[in-house]
Specification:
About 25% of the residues lie in helices and about 15% in strands. The protein is globular and about 80 Å long. By secondary structure, it is α/β, with parallel strands linked by helices. Helix 6 runs parallel beside helix 7 and helix 11 runs parallel beside helix 14. Strands 1-2-3-7-8-9-10-11 form an eight-stranded parallel beta barrel. Strands 12-13-14-19-16 form a five-stranded antiparallel β-sheet. Alpha-D-glucopyranose binds next to loops.
Length: about 550
């Protein structure tokens, strides 16, 4: 790869142009993340599937989201929740088949919803035919598509797996191979052109079936240091992602050329987009993945990883707006996903965590950019306690039980208050992860009837966001005063203020504006003031 190709190609003029062009859907979309295995089971095997998701599309349309992103649906070795793919151009029989995916896309389109797929280019499953061929024959062309090293006492370098332990394991014949995640997820060698060519085929395969784009797993990976040198520091990611201590493993300059090529491919298909998972500590480095000729967006995980603290949230919002603004990309805000403890639990659990999660939802949905909602967060689901014997996450096993793992945020969705909460049809097998006995209280059917529920709050917020362009598409400025965080969202015709009280006492907010929505029913407005209780947010239209 020539170093010239790896440098920034975006001129200031291009960046300004990106600001001016008419706004495509993804710049302010609300995207709902479907954890497919846990969303809806149509055939009674205890596993969510495409037909189940299809039957629930009217719910997503009713909720008011613009698009859905589906966690991996591919045939998989099953070692990491589907992120170990054995065939990139097929559907796992647990989930259905390619015709089901096409039917889903068609139904979604009729409801005005776009479908975004997950794609995993950093590693395959060890069950993938390439890896199997490489195991059988070290001189096969497939072997050069991975990182193998000759048998020796010690692994080739000091790299660590993100799931715990060394990043190198041995093949049965004694060679080493690299896996930055589980041993069942061998890392691909992107310096072999056959790898890039095959992924281009995969992108086109799904784009030809009408999908609206891709969420790219580990988009800051793919290329590794060409000489596989030791990392300069110990593996200890900072709160917000990897930094210079892991400089040999992640964020190699060559990876940006992959995103330029993928962007060209997507540009052949109208209205498609790519959003990348880029877990780097420096927001400016993250934003570089979303320059106008690279991925359309890269996730901002600052709110997902910040505690309930005014300055932490304010800094997260400001740094993201600055970094993404500098490259002309929208920020893609995230408060929850399948890798992190549920918000309600992160923010303190119970009534306190719920109140804060409600307020955080209003904050995120006010900010300019796209917003990614994780299935079940609209119901206020807490992190579930999963018995060790039911756990499936490699993080739990590879840490010898020291880390709880991510199963607790991947529990099947409660749809109604029947036995089994409506996840599977009557008489079905047990769900693949146990559903806590009190979850019928969180069920969609229960919350739909409750004007004060989390679900009702989300639905109202999404409707208001659609009706008031200042929300989600305004020009935002952030201000803090003590425990109060305010975001001024200036639209063409209206300014909406999102005020969040992150402290422990009620605060009085001076305003002559109108409260569009509050996260709690105890917000009171009297002449010129709003009394905003602790852990509460309000949207106030100032014009
Ligand atoms: C990403 C996914 C996570 C997965 C990992 C390895 O971080 O979000 O679930 O375990 O990549 O593919």
């Amino acid at each position: 790869m020539s170093p010239r190709l790896a440098t920034m190609r975006t001129s200031p003029e291009q960046q300004v142009e990106a600001f001016r062009s008419p706004s495509p859907w993804w710049r302010s979309a609300v995207v709902y993340q479907v954890y497919l295995r846990s969303f809806a089971d149509s055939n009674g095997d205890g596993i969510g599937d495409l037909a189940g998701l299809r039957s629930r599309l009217p719910y997503l349309s009713w909720l008011g989201v613009d698009a859905l992103w589906i966690n991996p649906h591919y045939p998989s070795g099953g070692a990491d929740g589907g992120y170990d793919i054995a065939d990139y151009r097929a559907v796992d029989p647990d989930y259905g088949d390619v015709a089901d995916l096409e039917a889903l896309v068609a139904d979604a389109r009729r409801l005005g919803l776009k479908v975004v797929l997950d794609v995993v280019p950093n590693h395959t499953s060890d069950q993938h035919p390439w890896f199997q061929a490489a195991l059988t024959d070290p001189d096969s062309p497939e072997a050069s598509r991975y990182h193998f090293a000759p048998a020796s006492e010690e692994p080739p370098n000091n790299w660590q797996s993100l799931f715990g332990g060394p990043a190198w394991s041995r093949t049965p014949d004694g060679r080493w191979y690299l896996h930055l995640f589980a041993p069942e997820q061998p890392d691909l060698n992107w310096r072999d052109p056959a790898v890039a060519a095959d992924f281009e085929k995969t992108l086109r395969f799904w784009l030809d079936r009408g999908v609206s784009g891709f969420r790219v797993d580990v988009a800051y990976g793919l290329f590794k240091d060409a000489e596989l040198r030791d990392n300069p520091g110990k593996y200890s990611p900072t709160l917000f992602g990897h930094g210079p201590e892991q400089a040999m493993t992640w964020n190699q300059p060559e990876v940006h050329d992959v995103w330029r090529r993928w962007r060209e491919i997507c540009d052949e298909y109208p209205d498609t987009m790519i959003v990348g998972e880029v877990c780097l500590a420096d927001p400016q480095e993250v934003a570089l993945y979303s320059r106008p000729d690279e991925m359309h967006q890269s996730f901002c995980f600052r709110l997902l990883k910040s505690g309930w603290d005014t300055e932490a949230f304010a800094d997260g919002v400001r740094s993201a707006l600055d970094a993404f603004g500098a490259v002309g990309a929208p920020v893609s805000w995230v408060l929850g996903n399948h890798d992190k403890d549920r918000q309600v639990t992160r923010f303190g659990g119970g009534a306190l965590g719920t109140a804060r999660a409600r307020a955080a939802a209003l904050l995120m949905l006010s900010l300019p950019g796209s917003a990614y909602l994780y299935a079940g967060d609209e119901l206020g689901l807490p992190q579930a306690v999963v018995p060790d014997e039911a756990k499936t996450d490699p993080i739990f096993f590879r840490s010898g039980g020291a880390r709880a793992g991510r199963d607790g945020c991947r529990i099947p969705m409660p749809w109604n208050d029947a036995d089994g909460v409506g996840f599977s049809p009557d008489g079905a097998a047990d769900p693949w992860l146990p559903i806590p006995t009190d979850w019928s209280g969180y069920a969609v059917s229960t919350q739909t009837r409750d004007g004060g529920s989390m679900l009702t709050l989300y639905r109202r917020a999404l409707a208001l966001r659609a009706a008031h362009p200042a929300l989600g598409s305004g020009e935002a400025t952030v201000e803090t005063a003590g425990d109060v965080l305010t975001v001024h969202c200036a639209g063409d015709d209206e300014t909406v203020r999102c005020v969040v009280n992150m402290g422990t006492e009620t605060v009085l907010v001076r305003t002559t504006g109108t409260v569009l929505l509050a996260s709690s029913t105890s917000v009171r407005q009297s002449a010129g003031t709003i009394a905003l209780p602790a852990n509460t947010a309000a949207w106030i239209s100032e014009d």
